[in-house]
Amino acid sequence: MIINPATNKPFTREEKEELQAHHSRAHVTSVRRPMATHSIASYLTPSRLANVLRNAINGQAEDYFVLAEEMEERDTHYRSVLSTRKLAAASLSPTVEAASDDEQDQELAEAVRQLLRHPQWEDCVFDLLDGIGKGIGLVEMLWDTTDTPWQPYEYKWVDPRFIRLDEDTQSELRLVTDDNPSDGEPLASNKYLVHLPRMKSGHWLRAGLARVVAVMYMLKSFTVRDWWAFAEVFGMPIRVGKYHSNASDEDIRTLINAIATIASDAGAAIPESMQIEMVETAKGSGGDTLFENMAEWADRQISKTVLGQTMTTDDGSSQSQAKVHNEVRQDIINWDARQLANTLNAHLVTPFIDMNWGPQKQYPRIIIKLEESKDIKAWVEAITPLIDRGMKVQASEVRDRVGLSDPEDDGELLHAVNNQPINTPALNRQQLALNRALPAIDTEAEIDELVNSGLNEWETVSAPILNPILDAAKQADSFEAFNLALNDIASELDASAFAEQLATLCWQARALGDVTDG
User: Fold this and answer.
1) pLDDT (tens digit, 9 = 90+) per residue, 180-220?
2) Where does a domain end: 256, 280, 304?
3) Among candidates 193, 198, 218, 216, which has minimal Cα distance to 208?
4) Could you tell me if residue 229 is inside a domain?
């Protein structure tokens, strides 16, 4: 039985239908229209922009969201750098970390991994990252309740134009409806993924990058408009018409028309008494680069805001600048990814598990971060010797680190080459090497241990042999006398302990060699 986490009671039919319904669907005849009915960017002035930004922080943010959308559509540079930042985080592959190695926690983690295999998953993540520019990314989940576990079968982007804030705290999100078009209604529980990226402290409406870029967008739009007007006449000679003081009004109008049309028609008819002179303009005043420099300056400020650096996508930057650029980008990507993972854990993982398995003390976690393959390789190489020396490591942590799921009971498993499962052999082939089931052995360390073990007891073992010989050497006054004494004590020397130790060490060395060679 599926329990509603909000009421701690089984889902009613109405609540079940709520999970399946598409609440934020836009209609032409609804208060939630698919397209905005007015434009903000087309008539943007300093006073109008100030009103839009002021109204947004007072809870009336529809015009702000319209402006943010139009800025992405109209400014190629802003569109490029913002897409670069969003795609950098959206392209990272998520992993799922189980709460522990318990069978129940492993089952929950695997269920979350199945959620991440949804065909719309990448689209859902990209739509949530819409919050980088606008301050909020909202996605509605449509749940499949026909089979257990219940899980989202479709993710729908919600236009932030449909969002309202409560009048009291300015923090509760509400969705405009035909029944309540001004204040809206609270978002249904377990239905929405709400991404509020923290790019600055304070209210999320002040955190969106579009709020900062809006000023640069307005200044750049003025600059580009003036630039094109200037480009229409730049380099063209000034056309000066001259007429005599006794010229009639009709003659003057004829001269003016000739001046206006000579640029396009390359010819004009005027009275013989009149003249048209072409005065060349000065080309060294820098007017041709003024507007370009202003537009590029605005682009650099936009790049600094979105990417954290001032390099534009068009300039030729040095290799050292590119390295700094990449380092800053990695910082930003990891921050965006961490914020995104927090949203998914709070608004997807927790409701999904609470509905299907009930509240848990600990939940599996979605982890999204920038990792290179060489880092994983170095980590594996560092952890393997520790495991070989007896360190206890949870298998789930290793799988989560390398991005592998738990093996299924009936799944085909991969094995190490020297640890393949062996079918039952014939009776005459049942002698298997003991080292098949043993872990890898450090041969040099084992040999050193054998040597140290033998040297630790050498005085005790060799005393029955060496002591009589040393005594004979001390008592003899010549080599001949010492040689005769050796013949006398030969039968008294006790080499049993030495022979036993030598045999033991030889056997151990032979066994070590057999195990190592396989």
Assistant:
1) 888 889 999 999 999 999 989 999 999 999 999 999 888 88
2) 280
3) 198
4) no
